[in-house]
Amino acid sequence: MQFKVIIPARYASTRLHGKALLDICGKPMIQRVYERALESGAQSVYIATDDMRIKDVAESFGADVLMTEESHRSGTDRITEAVQQLGCNENDIIVNLQGDEPLIPTSLVKQVAEDLHAHQDASMSTLYTPIHNQDDVSNPNVVKVVFSKQGYALYFSRAPIAWEREYFRTSEFRPSGHHMHYRHIGLYAYRAGFLQRFINWPVCDAEEMEALEQLRVLWNDERIHVSEAVAIPPPGVDTSDELERVRHLVSLSE
């Protein structure tokens, strides 16, 4: 089973400007993500960007870089252009590894690709972990997923789903402890042919309301397979506090 990893990276990050090039213990963040991808066993790894500063830095540490349009609304759109440039076959498996995940376990990158390969009726695959922290259930920044007994996604939401009717009557949304809630991990594998369909679909209402583009897939009656992650991913980097935390973790490991 072979797969490609594409890392979408833009300079104009809303919350942390120039995030991809910020230093983490002597290496830019994008280099640490790239090195993780290489360790996953991927057939090839590419960085897809719209910024010459990222391109120059990435090529300085030996990465293959694809220049893409500045106008893309999401990483998926950027990856689709990259797939077009590469001339991928329809059934090629593409892993979308975000450029702000410098500590992502390499086992997860491989797992999400293998999961898609094993489920030929799915257009996408992704991962989840059980939620053990009560506050995460009501945190809108923690995306929740509900799935079928065969592991196919039924819905993703920022709201507390599934809704425990007897216990969520107060604003605290405290789970009973009798049932499990699941956190979605934003690591995806796609079939290259699916990406060509995805970018031609209009944004659906649920996607617009939740700000979750994977809901467009479910709206169009395509399947997303989800599996429990074989490792717990450390936090990505969206804020300066998270950047400092990642720097601390890297300093301890090196």
Describe the structure.
By secondary structure, this protein is an alpha/beta fold. The chain has 9 helices and 11 strands. The two termini are 32 Å apart. The model has no long low-confidence stretch (mean pLDDT 92).
Could you spell the SSE succession in H and E letters? EEEHEHEHEHEHEEEHHHEH
Q: Helix/strand-derived class?
A: alpha/beta
Strand segment tally = 11
- Overall geometry comes to globular
Which segments are poorly predicted (pLDDT under 50) over 5 or more consecutive residues? none
Radius of gyration of CA atoms, rounded to a whole number: 18 Å
Give the biggest beta sheet. Answer: 7 strands, mixed
Mean pLDDT: 92
Helix content: 25-40%
- Termini separation (Å)? 32 Å
Strand content: 15-25%
Total helical segments: 9
Output the strand order for the largest sheet: 5-4-1-6-10-7-11
Topology overview:
Blueprint: E1 4-9, E2 23-24, E3 27-28, H1 29-39, E4 44-49, H2 52-60, E5 64-67, H3 75-86, E6 93-96, H4 106-118, E7 124-131, H5 134-138, E8 144-147, E9 153-157, E10 181-191, H6 192-198, H7 205-210, H8 214-219, E11 224-228, H9 240-253
Parallel strand pairs: 1-4, 1-6, 4-5, 7-11
Antiparallel strand pairs: 2-3, 6-10, 7-10, 8-9
